[in-house]
Amino acid sequence: MAASFVTLFQWRLNSMLLHENEILLGVKDQIKSLISQLDAAGSFTGDVGMILGRESGHGSWASELRGMLRQAEDFVDDFVIRAYGQTEKDRKDSIAEFGKELQNFNSRISEILNRRPPVEAPLMLEEIQRFVRSNIPSSEDKETDLVTCMLNYINLPYDLKLSLLFCCAFLRRHYQSIDGLVRGLVAAGLVQEKPGELMEDKAQENIDKLISLGMIEELEFIRDHFRVPSPYCELSLGVMKAEDFFMSTANSDIMVPPTARHVSIYYAANTIPNTNSFLHSLFFFSEMDFSKACSDCLRNVLHNSKLLRVLDLKNTLFESLPDEVGKLVHLRYLGVRESYITKLPESISNLRNLQTLDISGPGVGFELSNGVLNLAQLRHLKMSAPAIDGEVRVPQGISRLGNLQTLESIYAGSGIAKELGVMTQLRSLKVSCVSDDHADELYFSVMKLSMLRKLSLTVERGRERGSYKYENSFFPCLESFSPPPLLQTLELVGRLIEVPLWLGLMENLTKLYMCYSYLSENPTTILHFLPNLKYLQMVNAYKGRHMEKEFFRAGGFPKLEYLDITFDNLVEWTEIEEGALPCLKQLSIHDCKELMLLPEGLQHVTTLRILDMWGVHEDLIRRLSPNGGPENYKIKHIPLVKYQGHMRNGFRGRWTPQ
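Above: the chain's sequence. Below: its structure in token form.
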């Protein structure tokens, strides 16, 4: 990956010029000169040649350049750590030494590039086939697919190669949200930063390109999540094995090579491996509770890995983080999802470069101290509302975080609703426990958020025992609300008296989640006008027992691709008008335990690819069965039908075309 190392190091230097201006005034010229030198390196296939095992002089200079750039980047990162802990006099001496060393790197890189061959040998098909056979065990038929995929990989731009390897290394054993991938790519430094542009937008653009190429794919059964399909996953693992920059393993006792910069340990036992001191990313997914010994092990890892930019500890069930986390000057992403942490260490306020703080998980209550207000670079604050109290209280002054784009599961009372009105950079907002005492101010503030793309509002739930579905929890004053014009995703959790008229006017809305609305009237009367809606989930949004053809009229929902219905009271769904739902790909019917027939007209929805029925009556499945079921004609055109009864150990199965 020598070519990719050139690109990454250029990005790192440009990022320093943007963010470390205070300590770089005396060496800006040396940094710019080094960037120009790297520009002169141009485009070459050194990384691919090394992966394929070329032993020529070409491979030698490329490997040497790769090693040189590793040294240079580690030196730069170490300088930043030292500089911010020094007195003014010592810092001045360090900067002078740093400038001399940059000139030295510049000269050495120039010497290496001068040994680059004038004409690079073209890649041979035999080389690719040999690589596939050596690194990816497969059948002869599958080998052809892998070779084709390898050719596609070789032709990718460097940033897309990095994005694909990142996806596979850290997420192949775990479904992950696309938003989470975006945040991880940005924090790991695998996206180029440019003045005036959001790196998250560039990361999303790269993901969209990989999806369009079929190299990663969105999951149909979990919203906004993705996976790396085979054979691209196997290919990526083969590439990682060949060059040791990314590393993914299920063995927590493995030795991490000194060349590895991004490491993922998944399904790990009760230990964290010793890592090299140059590590940039550590993703750790446990399958069991961690002991105190493992907590001590984490403390040692943090002490030794001063260059960490990404630390993601999932399902570790930690109750606390060691203070050493506050010494990670370069840390940009801190994730402790599925943990039992109730309080963050005070040292977290020292993380001057932190972009993402993800403490979402099982809904355990925790305190968010005033120290979070010192995280000036924070872009994404993800939390989960506790299951009992249903809210997370953030400290007053949260609006000081002028870079914040994501803010989830907060309580907007105690003056926070008013502060939200000045946080115009927010793109995703999730508010819990909306109540009369602050609803008007909250709605007024949200209407000012012109950049907002995602909004989730959950009403305050009744405190009476056994009240889990918001039957008596109505949204206050929702008719006075008007959503920001660019809003694309909206989630409303709580009872509605009627569907707000403004909902039918949201031209940019692509995803809508209506949960526990318990409407007496047909909610689709307004919704079917939405011109760009692609995903609609209704969880007890309607409390009626009958759905007629008025629910899905011809021409309605022109772009809807995913329809998810959970209606506890539904007994009868009579008809879908022919010409309705012209783009529907997946229909999910959940917990409709009394529904005995699917609607007439479903057979005319020819775009349908998946029918998923969960928690349904056995008689419904019997009628739909391809083995003589009288209603099978309604679904026989659907490539995949999945079903499961409403009992935990009840019947389940799937049908595919014969």
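The two ends are 47 Å apart (CA to CA).
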